[in-house]
Amino acid sequence: MSALSDRGIGDEADLRSLFGQSTAVYASFTGPTHVLETLNDAFGGSVAQEGAETGVALVDAVPELAGQGVVELLDEVYATGEARTVRDTRIVLGSAPHEREAFFDLTCEPRRDATGEVTGVRVIGVEVTQVKHAQRLMAEHRALLEQIARDAPLTDVLDGMARCIEQLVPQELFVSVLLADPDGLHLRHGAAPSLPDFYNEAIDGIATGEGVGSCGTAAHRREPVVVADIGTDPFWDDFRDLAVRAGVAACWSTPILARDGALLGTFALYHPEPRVPQDTDLALIEVFTGTAALAIERHRGEQANRAAEARAEAALAELAKAVEAERELRADAEKRAAEAAELAAKMRVAAATHAQAPRPEKCQLGGKAGCAEAAEIKVADSWGDAAWGCAVHVEEALIHVRSIFIASEELGGLAAYLNR
């Protein structure tokens, strides 16, 4: 306040006029109980919640300030006569369920009379709640980007994003992210940690189309859809009872689009009371819709890569099976060829042996009675036994003994018989 005094602004009316035209908060108090003497609209709207009256002690006008450090700060300045400046002072204002967290940079200076005696305290400050919330949101946003870069599960990223927004935004709201099917015709549950389970289950799989709530319409139009009052908007005719049960009265939905314009899903903010978005809300939606798009697109890319890798591995496995089958067939064919060659060699040896055996003079097939006919034809069986016989006995043997075959070289021989 010394700088203001140097500029010739000294009385309370001038100070009130100056700060009443700015976003800064200003109030002056008198006496040890800090009776509110003057205040600007900003102080009344942010600190006193428009309920403070002059001539009333601060703790009586704003009871929730007790024990939060502000009254204690005024006590210290009043007692010591020394100015104090504090930054990022956190104050919880209002009462449940409408209480809110606020942050202020405050400068408290003593007020003195003509003799220099401290008669009160004046407070000048700036509410930095939005700045603090923006800093927190950006910090959380960076953390989300790091999660995405580390390929964290999509459900974790989206759920964390929703909780971050719900915790840091001053107004009560609920965040919902729906994911588009590959054909873009239906929306599936992605994340909505604060909406009731029955609500999430009911809208899981809703169609995209004109008039299908805020999200179905936004997905269909590929543009934001703001429904300020679910109770009267025709887009919610089919879902109004569901919304009432869930305790939501407004829904602003924005399509989540890929870089090529493909539909990835929707990002929605629900509110328990009817309301329209402010500039800060629109900025918030823009930032986190982009974050959701990045996470979903990266997730889909990873899924596509894993699917391609799986297909490649399956193709390699099938190729390996085919190669192994071909190897087994080749080995079997080589084995059969070796066995055939071995059998052919044995047959050649057997045929040569039978061919070289001397021919007897008489038929050997006459049995016990014998046969005096001349031996004309040589026969053999599959066990390698051979005999010579006359034409009659050879014919009988061929008819009645199935394993018998003609082994004479001039009639085709053993090899000719086996290869017939």
UniProtKB/TrEMBL annotation:
Query: In this protein, which residues make up the domain named GAF?
Result: 140-306
Q: Which sequence ranges form a coiled-coil region, renumbered to this chain? A: 305-343
Keywords carried by this UniProt record = Coiled coil
Give the top-rank taxon of the lineage listed in the UniProt record for this protein. Answer: Bacteria
Cited InterPro entries: GAF, GAF-like_dom_sf, PAS_4
Protein name (database record): GAF domain-containing protein
- Origin organism is Lentzea fradiae
